[in-house]
Write a structure and sequence with these properties.
mainly alpha; about 75% helix; 27 helices; NADH-ubiquinone oxidoreductase chain 5; 2 strands; mitochondrion inner membrane; two-stranded antiparallel ribbon; about 650 residues; single chain; electron transport; NADH dehydrogenase activity; globular
Length: about 650
C-alpha cells in the first residue's frame, strides 16, 4: 500500500505523457485525476496507521551503492513526518488536477501539462518519503527539473523562458551547497542513512556540525526562496496559475522546510546554524511583506506572501520549534492554494487580466470566488479560530518566549510582518472586488463564475482553511503531544512551549492580531474610501516606493556584479584558456611539438663523421652517468631524478641540434 502512494502519480504521468495521443484530452484528465485521488485515499489510510496508530514503516527496495563501509539503499521511510507531508501534497495536488481540467481546457498541450503535474507530485512524494539523503536528493533534483518544465510550459513566451532559467540556475546554487554538505556527511560519518547520521550527530565535532548545518541551510534557502536566493520565485508566476498553486503552496517551496525539519537531530547541536536560520527567516518574512505592499500583479502579490510565510516557517525552525514549523507548512499549503486558485478563477473569468488596478467591482460578478478568497485571506492573517491562527501566531509567541537576541529580533520583525501582511492582503481584496470597476466593459459582460471543476476545489480548500487548524492543532503542536515521535528531535534546552503558553503577557499575545487589524482597516480605507493616495506626492515616499517595487534592488545587484562578472569570466575562459593556453599546450601544441621533433631528428643525419663522433661520445657519457650516479649523487635530491635529467637533456638536444 505504501509504495502504491508513490506509484499511482508516476503511472498517471506516464500514461498521459506517452499515450496522450491515444487516450485524448479527456482520457488524460480522467486517468491523472483518478490516480491522484487513489493516492490521496491511500495517504489518508497511511496517516491513520503511521500517524495516529504510531507504527512507522520502512521499505527497502535494493542497494544502489556499496563500497567498504558506505552503503546507499533505495529505501523509503513512512514515519509521522512523512505522512504529515503526504496530506497537503496529495490533497492539494488532486484538487489542482481537477481545477486544471477547466482552467487549461483551451490549451492544445493538455496531455503534456497533466503529465508534468503528476510527475512533479511523484518526485515530491519521493523527496518526503526517502529513508536517506540520497533518495531525498533524487526527489529534490526531480522537482527542480519538472518545475523548470512547468514554469516554461508556454515555451514560446520569452518571459517564461527567462523565469524558468532563473529558477533552475538559482536552485543550482543551493543544490551545490547541499551536495557539499552530503559529501561532508559521508566523509565524516560514512553514511547517508537518517538513522545512522542522527544517532552519531551528538558526537560530531562542533565546527563540522556548524558547517554541515549551514550547507544544509543553503539548499533550503534556494528551494524555499529565502534571502538572498529568493529572486526566482516571483518570476515563476509566468507559468500557468495551477502551476503557481502547486509549486508555491504544497510542493516545491516546502521542500526546503522539509529538509530542515528532517535534519533536526543535526541542527539541534549547531547553535550557529540555528542562529543564522532564525535571522534569515525573520529577515525574509519582513522583506517579502514590504515588497508585497507595492506589487500590482495579482499573482505576484500572492507570491510575495508565500515568501513571507516561508520566512515564518524558517524562523520557527531556527527557534527549534520544528513541529510548529511543520504545522504552518500544512496550514499554509491549504489557504495559499485557495488564494492562488481563486486568483486563477478571477484571471480566467476576466479576459486573463492580472493587473489589480484594471480590476474592481468583481464581488457582484464572482461572489463565490470572493468568499473563497476572503476565507483564504483571513486565514493568512491568522484570524482567530481559522487555520492560520493555530500556527502563525504561535510562531511569533514562541519567538518572544526565547528571551534571547535572535528571539527578540524574530518577534519584532514577525509582528511587523503580520501588520504588513494584512495591509497588502486587504489591498488585493479591495482593488479586485470592492472598488468601482476599472476594467473594460466587455470584460465585465463576459465575467461569470466558473464550472464545478473550479468551484469544488475552491470549496474544499475553503473548508480546510477554516477547520483544519482547529481539528489538528492539539495533535501537531499541543502541549505534551508525542505525535511526531522520533521523526523530529528537539533538544530539552530548546523547548519553550510552556513559557509561550502560560508566562507571557496578554498584550504580547494580542500584538500580532492588533497589528493585523490595523493593517487591514488601513488598506480598506486607503484603497476603497480614499479617492487619491495623497502621501504618494511626497518625493521621499516615491523613492521608498521605487526601492520596494525594485525588490531592494537585489536583481540589479545580481545583474551588475554576478551576471556581468560571470559572463566576463566565461569570455576569458573561452578565449584565453580554452582556445588559448589549453589549445596551445593541448592538441595544437602537441601536434606542432611532434612535427617539429620529427624535423629536428631528421636534421641530425648530417653525413659528417665528426657529428657522429659527438653522438657516440654523448651516449657513452650518459651511460656512465646512469651507472655511477648512485655513487656520485648519493644523498642528493638529484639521485631520484637522474633518469629525468638524462631524458630532458636528450630531448633538448634532439629539438635544437647544433647546425653548421
Amino acid at each position: 500500500m505504501y509504495l502504491s502512494i508513490l506509484i499511482f502519480p508516476l503511472l498517471g504521468s506516464f500514461v498521459s505523457g506517452l499515450l496522450g495521443r491515444k487516450i485524448g484530452v479527456t482520457g488524460a484528465h480522467i486517468i491523472t485525476c483518478t490516480c491522484l485521488i487513489i493516492s490521496s485515499i491511500l495517504a489518508t489510510l497511511a496517516f491513520y496507521e503511521v500517524g495516529l496508530c504510531g507504527s512507522p514503516v520502512s521499505v527497502n527496495l535494493s542497494t544502489w551503492l556499496e563500497s567498504e563501509i558506505l552503503s546507499v539503499q533505495w529505501e523509503f521511510l513512512f514515519d509521522q513526518l512523512t505522512v504529515s507531508m503526504f496530506i497537503p501534497v496529495l490533497y492539494i495536488s488532486s484538487l489542482i488536477h481537477i481545477f486544471s481540467t477547466n482552467y487549461m481546457a483551451e490549451d492544445p498541450h493538455n496531455q503534456r501539462f497533466f503529465s508534468y503535474l503528476s510527475l512533479f507530485t511523484f518526485f515530491m512524494l519521493v523527496l518526503v518519503s526517502g529513508a536517506n539523503y540520497f533518495v531525498m536528493f533524487v526527489g529534490w533534483e526531480g522537482i527542480g527539473v519538472v518545475s523548470y518544465l512547468l514554469i516554461n510550459f508556454w515555451f514560446t513566451r520569452i518571459q517564461a523562458n527567462k523565469a524558468a532559467i532563473l529558477a533552475f540556475t538559482m536552485n543550482r546554487v543551493g543544490d551545490m551547497g547541499l551536495s557539499i554538505g552530503f559529501f561532508a556527511l559521508v566523509a565524516l560519518l560514512g553514511s547517508l542513512n537518517y538513522s545512522t547520521l542522527f544517532s552519531l550527530a551528538p558526537f560530531m565535532n562542533s565546527t563540522a556540525i556548524d558547517i554541515i548545518g549551514l550547507l544544509l541551510l543553503s539548499g533550503a534557502m534556494a528551494k524555499s526562496a529565502q534571502i538572498p536566493l529568493h529572486s526566482w520565485l516571483p518570476g515563476s508566476m509566468e507559468g500557468p496559475t495551477p502551476v503557481s498553486a502547486l509549486i508555491h503552496a504544497a510542493t516545491l517551496v516546502t521542500a526546503g522546510l522539509y529538509l530542515l525539519v528532517r535534519s533536526s537531530p543535526i541542527l539541534e547541536y549547531s547553535s550557529t546554524a540555528l542562529l543564522v536560520i532564525t535571522l534569515v527567516g525573520a529577515s525574509t518574512a519582513f522583506f517579502a511583506a514590504t515588497c508585497g505592499l507595492v506589487q500590482n500583479d495579482l499573482k505576484r502579490i500572492i507570491a510575495f506572501s508565500t515568501i513571507s510565510q516561508l520566512g515564518y516557517m524558517v524562523m520557527a525552525v531556527g527557534l527549534s520549534q520544528y513541529n510548529v514549523a511543520l504545522m504552518h507548512v500544512v496550514n499554509h499549503a491549504f489557504f495559499k492554494a485557495l488564494l492562488f486558485l481563486g486568483a486563477g478563477a478571477v484571471i480566467h473569468s476576466f479576459s486573463d487580466q492580472q493587473d489589480v488596478r484594471r480590476l474592481g467591482g468583481l464581488i457582484k460578478f464572482l461572489p463565490f470566488t470572493y468568499t473563497a478568497m476572503l476565507v483564504g485571506t483571513l486565514s493568512l492573517l491568522a484570524t482567530p479560530w481559522l487555520t492560520g491562527f493555530y500556527s502563525k501566531d504561535l510562531i511569533i509567541e514562541l519567538a518572544f518566549a526565547q528571551y534571547s537576541f535572535e528571539g527578540t529580533f524574530a518577534f519584532i520583525l514577525g509582528s511587523l510582518t503580520a501588520g504588513l501582511t494584512a495591509f497588502y492582503s486587504f489591498r488585493l481584496i479591495s482593488l479586485v472586488f470592492l472598488t468601482k470597476p476599472n476594467g473594460p466593459k466587455i470584460s465585465y459582460l463576459h465575467s461569470h463564475e466558473a464550472t464545478l471543476a473550479v468551484i469544488i476545489p475552491l470549496f474544499v480548500l475553503a473548508l480546510f482553511s477554516i477547520f483544519f487548524g482547529f481539528v489538528f492543532s492539539d495533535l501537531f503542536v499541543g502541549i505534551g503531544t508525542d505525535f511526531f515521535g522520533n521523526s523530529i528531535f528537539i533538544h530539552p534546552n530548546h523547548i519553550t512551549m510552556v513559557e509561550a503558553e502560560f508566562s507571557m503577557d496578554r498584550i504580547v499575545k494580542l500584538l500580532p492580531t492588533i497589528l493585523s487589524l490595523l493593517g487591514a482597516v488601513l488598506a480598506v480605507y486607503l484603497y476603497h474610501f480614499t479617492p487619491n493616495l495623497f502621501f504618494m506626492e511626497s518625493p521621499i515616499t516615491r523613492k521608498i516606493y521605487t526601492f520596494l517595487n525594485g525588490k531592494y534592488l537585489f536583481d540589479v545587484m545580481y545583474n551588475h556584479y554576478f551576471i556581468g562578472s560571470g559572463l566576463q569570466l566565461g569570455y576569458f575562459i573561452s578565449k584565453v584558456l580554452d582556445r588559448g593556453v589549453i589549445e596551445f599546450v593541448g592538441p595544437y601544441g602537441l601536434s606542432n611539438t611532434l612535427s617539429q621533433t620529427g624535423i629536428n631528428i631528421g636534421k641530425l643525419d648530417t653525413g659528417v663523421i665528426t657529428t657522429y663522433s659527438l653522438y657516440i661520445t654523448i651516449g657513452l657519457l650518459s651511460l656512465v652517468f646512469l651507472v655511477f650516479s648512485p655513487i656520485l649523487l648519493d644523498n642528493s635530491i638529484l639521485n631520484e631524478n637522474r633518469l629525468f635529467i638524462i631524458y630532458l637533456a636528450t630531448l633538448l638536444f634532439a629539438l635544437y641540434p647544433n647546425q653548421k
